[in-house]
């Protein structure tokens, strides 16, 4: 079976005006399957966001392979963008459009029209309880409301792969809880969910498998039980620490 | 001595303000370098034009209500010698005045019609000199010219000094013959008589003002949308959202440039409409109701201008969007586009120099070509080859600008830049020396 997400020896380097040459991702191998939640765990600057951006076709890879549903990201990034839902702190909503206009805009660009478009938009409006504020401009919505519209925007075209970059950062407890419920519901529907986080409890609760990433390298990947077994640590925080120390040694 | 706190604050603000590149550019570089440079260029341009004017031959018709021997002498005085010709003789040198004499009698009205005659789609004469019946009271010699045509004004300018010299010769001769004081004699009363219809004078004034206004309107109309759609998007953190659209980046950028162009075109159209509504009234107020000109917006000419205006707005929009896309915030975008505006507005000023006409060469010079073409179209000048060249050149420049915009803004280093790209960094990127891939 073709993995929903696959990277092989993925590498990304860039020239930073202040830091010089930066190797953000160094030969990353990764596989995620449908109906699986994979958590990419690492500190700030570990290469999580860069990896997710490459997978979404936003950034190009320096070398290596990245595939979504078997489609090479570097060869056909358009097709990749049709097959993914992507959400990050940087994927803001267009402030001067209303929630409904935003959803209709994305639906239209995903090739939906007429009744199919209306159906798809109504479906997500109902699913994320957007109706009460659907005609309000996004700039006037609360953080929680904006988050709901963003999720609706990301899943509007029913993508088989969902990529979420630190999806609960900046959310209050209720909104975070809603987000976690949403991720679990997508798994139940057979979607492959890849998300990055540095909140260990979130990873422990949600992930079928966890990848520990540090300085652009995948230190280890597996279920929580496998990681515990490999490191001999009980808690994920300790697992992470031991793997980082092992890599540094 | 301890400075008052407000002076300390002022010192700090001044220091930080002067360390801002844009402020330094506007405060020091523009006044010291740019404007003198532009004025030097304009002086050089005017010298070139002066040279062109000197080498332009003008054609003058000579007619009289009662033809007399004097006319032959007058024709010789005007068109004879260096730089002149009479009745088809081949002229040489500069300031050429070709004179064609009409031996049959013509009334002033007939002379006016003669002055408006055309030959092969061009005016037959640049000016006509008409002599009234000398027996008539208040008899004049009138220089009939069209103030809406630069060649006609040139013909008038060459005629007048030669006429004055001729009159002076006549006066001295007559005084000698009659043995009187030459100052008591007035052998010919010279009078300038513009034959331009009020409407054409209005069109002339509008054609001097509107082209530069059109350029300014297009630039101003495109300015804020370009900043908002390019730099503003990064500031609002929606650039990444846009990159996720299932469309090629070029398509997204084409859409943005189209949106900016539409705003610029609407701004131009609305401004023209407003000028059309208010021009007559405003000019009437300014001249106390005694305007020599009629300010009707020439709708047909404006329809002809429309395609050029749209192409120009397209060109401007692509350039402004490309530059604004280098900025990371709205404010920085505004600062970047400030000098770029001048790149359009200063050449537009060159385009309104009197006497400069749309030629095939000028039709290829960006911005100047648009101003000259607008001016000629508003005056109804049939320069079809030049208009075609101008349109083609504008289209090529606009497409090149769009291509450059797409090439620059599609790069992930630019599209996702967290800070405004310095010229050095941009240069490195454009030269492809960046190791980022």
Q: Which descriptors apply to this entry?
A:
heterodimer, A: 249 residues, alpha/beta, Rossmann fold, six-stranded mixed β-sheet, four-stranded antiparallel β-sheet, 39% helix, B: abc type-2 transporter like fold, 2 domains, 14 helices, disordered C terminus
What can you tell me about this protein's structure?
- The complex is a heterodimer of chains A (249) and B (437).
- Chain A has 249 residues and is an alpha/beta fold.
- Chain A is 39% helix and 26% strand.
- Chain A has helices at residues 48-55, 77-83, 99-109, 114-127, 143-155, 173-188, 200-206, 224-231, 236-248, and strands at residues 5-16, 20-32, 37-41, 63-68, 71-72, 84-87, 161-165, 192-197, 209-214, 217-222.
- In chain A, the strands form two sheets. In chain A, strands 6-7-8-3-9-10 form a six-stranded mixed sheet, sandwiched between helices.
- In chain A, helix 3 (99-109) packs parallel to helix 5.
- The longest helix of chain A has 16 residues, at 173-188.
- Chain A starts with a strand and ends with a helix.
- The mean pLDDT of chain A is 90.
- Chain B has 437 residues and is of the alpha/beta class.
- Chain B folds into two domains: 57-196, abc type-2 transporter like fold (3-Layer(aba) Sandwich); 200-430, no CATH class.
- Chain B contains 14 helices and eight strands.
- In chain B, the strands form two sheets. A six-stranded mixed sheet of chain B has the order 2-3-1-6-7-8, sandwiched between helices. In chain B, strands 4-5 form a two-stranded antiparallel ribbon.
- Chain B is elongated.
- The two termini of chain B are 57 Å apart.
- The model of chain B is unreliable at 433-437 (pLDDT under 50).
- Chain A binds chain B through residues 13-15, 17, 21, 56-62, 78, 81-82, 86, 88-95, 106, 109-111, 153, and chain B through 236-241, 243-248, 412-413, 416, 422, 425, 434-437.
């Amino acid at each position: 079976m073709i993995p929903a997400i696959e990277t092989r020896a993925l590498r990304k380097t860039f020239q930073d005006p202040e830091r010089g040459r930066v190797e953000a991702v160094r030969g990353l191998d990764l596989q995620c399957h449908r109906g699986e939640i994979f958590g990419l765990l690492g500190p700030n600057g570990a290469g999580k966001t860069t990896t997710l951006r490459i997978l979404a076709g936003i950034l190009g890879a320096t070398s290596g392979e990245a595939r979504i549903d078997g489609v090479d990201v570097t060869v056909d990034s358009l097709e990749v963008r049709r097959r993914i839902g992507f959400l990050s702190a940087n994927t803001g909503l267009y402030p001067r459009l209303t929630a409904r206009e935003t959803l209709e805009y994305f639906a239209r660009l995903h090739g939906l029209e007429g009744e199919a478009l209306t159906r798809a938009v109504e479906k997500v409006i109902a699913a994320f309880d957007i109706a009460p504020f659907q005609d309000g401009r996004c700039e006037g919505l609360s953080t929680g409301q904006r988050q709901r519209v963003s999720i609706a925007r990301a899943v509007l075209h029913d993508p088989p792969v969902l990529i979420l970059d630190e999806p609960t950062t900046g959310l209050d407890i209720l909104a975070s809880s809603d987000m976690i419920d949403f991720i679990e519901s997508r798994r139940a529907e057979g979607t492959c969910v890849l998300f990055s986080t540095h909140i260990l409890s979130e990873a422990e609760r949600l992930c079928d498998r966890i990848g520990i990433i540090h300085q652009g390298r995948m230190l280890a990947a597996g279920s929580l039980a496998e990681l515990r077994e490999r490191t001999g640590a009980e808690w994920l925080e300790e697992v992470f620490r031991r793997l980082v120390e092992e890599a540094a040694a | 001595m301890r400075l008052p706190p407000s002076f300390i604050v002022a010192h700090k603000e001044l220091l930080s303000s002067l360390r801002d590149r844009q402020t330094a550019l506007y405060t020091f570089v523009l006044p010291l370098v740019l404007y003198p440079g532009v004025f030097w260029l304009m002086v050089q341009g005017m010298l070139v034009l002066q040279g062109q004017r000197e080498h332009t031959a003008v054609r003058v018709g000579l007619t009289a209500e009662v033809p007399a021997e004097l006319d032959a002498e007058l024709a010789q005085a005007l068109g004879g010698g260096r730089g002149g010709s009479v009745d088809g003789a081949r002229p040489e040198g500069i300031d050429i005045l070709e004179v064609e004499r009409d031996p049959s009698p013509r009334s002033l009205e007939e002379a006016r019609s003669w002055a408006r005659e055309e030959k092969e789609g061009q005016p037959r004469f640049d000016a006509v000199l008409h002599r009234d019946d000398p027996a008539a009271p208040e008899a004049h010699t009138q220089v009939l010219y069209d103030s809406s045509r630069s060649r006609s004004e040139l013909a008038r300018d060459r005629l007048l000094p030669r006429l004055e010299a001729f009159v002076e010769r006549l006066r001295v001769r007559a005084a000698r013959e009659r043995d009187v004081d030459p100052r008591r004699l007035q052998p010919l009363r010279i009078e300038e008589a513009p034959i331009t219809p009020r409407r054409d004078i209005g069109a002339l004034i509008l054609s001097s003002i509107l082209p530069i206004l059109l350029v300014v309107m297009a630039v101003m109309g495109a300015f804020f949308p370009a900043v908002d759609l390019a730099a503003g998007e990064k500031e609002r953190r929606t650039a990444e959202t846009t990159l996720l659209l299932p469309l090629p980046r070029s398509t997204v950028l084409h859409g943005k440039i189209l949106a900016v162009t539409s705003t610029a075109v609407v701004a131009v159209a609305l401004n023209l409409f407003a000028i059309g509504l208010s021009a007559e009234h405003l000019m009437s107020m300014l001249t106390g109701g005694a305007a020599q000109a009629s300010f009707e917006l020439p709708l047909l000419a404006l329809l002809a201008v429309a395609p050029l205006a749209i192409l120009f707005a397209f060109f401007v929009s692509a350039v402004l969007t490309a530059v604004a896309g280098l900025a990371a915030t709205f404010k920085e975008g505004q600062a970047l586009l400030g000098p770029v505006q001048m790149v359009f507005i200063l050449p537009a000023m060159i385009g309104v120099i009197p006497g400069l006409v749309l030629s095939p060469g000028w039709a290829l010079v960006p911005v100047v070509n648009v101003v000259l073409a607008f001016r000629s179209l508003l005056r109804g000048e049939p320069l079809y080859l030049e208009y075609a060249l101008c349109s083609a050149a504008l289209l090529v420049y606009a497409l090149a600008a769009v291509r450059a915009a797409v090439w620059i803004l599609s790069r992930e280093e630019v599209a996702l830049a967290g800070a405004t790209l310095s010229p050095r960094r941009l240069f490195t990127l454009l030269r492809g020396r960046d190791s980022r891939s």
